[in-house]
Amino acid sequence: RHHGAQRRLRRTPALRAMVTETTLTPANLIWPIFVTEIAGGEGEIPSMPGVERLTLDGAKRAAETAMRLGIPAICIFPHSDPDLKTESCERAWDPENIGNRAIRAIKQVAPELAVMTDIALDPYNANGHDGLVRDGVILNDETVEALGRMALVQAEAGADILGPSDMMDGRIGALRGRLEESGHKDVAILSYAAKFASGFYGPFRDAVGASGRLVGDKKTYQVNPANREEAMRCVARDLSEGADMVMVKPGMPYLDICRMVKDQFAAPTFAYQVSGEYAMIEGAIRNGWLAREVVVESLLAFRRAGCDGILTYYAPQVAERLA
Ligand code: PBG
Question: What is the pLDDT of residue 1?
């Protein structure tokens, strides 16, 4: 073959291994789990086949699985009792809410596993929004104040990483301040910095029981999917306010944003392969339309686009496959 031939180095597995540019290991994965406080609330989520809502015991078992497989972090999402959701969302900062109980339960069995949380009011909000609502308007500063309380209680419960997914202005600085002044200096913030107003969150809202609740949409606080520069400004702001790590969400439809964020800021960058992406891939696999290999391919794409890690519902399955 002549100069410029590329096939010479593709000929055997050994040669291909030598020139592999990007790697995917269990250390690159964060595993999001749903924990229910509703009796009988556990079990498979219809729009996310293969993903289950867990009881507290199930969450402990998941933590042990993560440790065994070398997955460094688990991220807790609460499935909370709909009858206890209110407009003022006070359960969000109740030390006994299911999210906080899950943090403590996991820390009991797997103290070395990094526990990440979600900071937003939606699991406890009667109207399904991430912020407090008055006369149909999402209140910014009042929400940030509430999120601060939520953060402290999660830090108290033992969270290692807080994940503010609410998209209010000024929340990162406010949370950082609250953590510093309350003696939780070591708790890290992984900011959902470039979070788009996406239709790909649909199955997640089923999973946490928020679908029927949501009044209107989240377009007044999440980023317009058409906007790349605005996403970059969000990331710049969150880093300047003290975010330790930043996230792009959803993932696969926003790989251009991942690459830009990594190139411009050189900060720890994560992508969230969200529920709708999972549903698309898993639905096609279960229909026999795609082979299961596409799962690893889909995650490798994030690494190629510059992400240090990926939040994915496929975490345990892929870690098992990579082992
Ligand atoms: C809400 C939140 C959402 C997700 C994580 N946190 C949904 C939303 O913004 O409506 C989505 C995750 C997924 O789709 O997998 N605070």
Answer: 62
